[in-house]
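User: Okay, second chain of the day. Same drill as before: sequence in, structure tokens out.
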Amino acid sequence: MKKGIYIVFEGIVGSGKTTQSKMLVERLQRELPKREVVWTREPGGSEIAGAIRKIVQATEFEEEMQAVCEAYLYAAARAQSLRAIVRPVIKRGGIVVADRSYLTSVAFQGSGRGMGNELVFKINEVAIDGTNPNLVFFINVDPATSLKRTRDIKGDKFEAMQVDFFKKALKGYDFAAKKLKKSWRKIDGSKEIEQVHEQIYKEVLKLV
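Assistant: Same drill. Structure tokens below.
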């Protein structure tokens, strides 16, 4: 049995990571028909994780949700989806492609919301329990450009954030890149969609 593979797509809103992650899954399913290939997202992927996603991202409260509360809710959703979705597929030798991971929390809560990157890493230690991606594709796009693209403001409160927040978040991604040097791949998201996809697919072929 082939070894399972866990691939993660990261980036600020409007970077094109969701499009690229789904394109990769479709191609892998087409070209590797005998291999289990699953797309998932964070937060979400399972019933419980999806319910947490709705609470933390798409529910309006009269009180402000604190950054530390966000971080723990995301970690809780992550703990569930990794154990319910990601790990079983990997154990069976399949390929999991995920739209976001704990690295988003490092960027958004750690840098964007000012909690500190090391603290967010610490909060997620138990949640991920050593389940780190084999490949991380960070789709790099200038915040001013990405925020002009289509956004789901009603479905994700972070998509309503302004440029300054995402400039801070990028510093969190720089921090994460140093932590995951071997698996990190920085991709220029300003290129044509197909160009970006081909660059990503070449990297994935080295693993499959």
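The mean pLDDT is 94.

User: Thanks, on to the next one.
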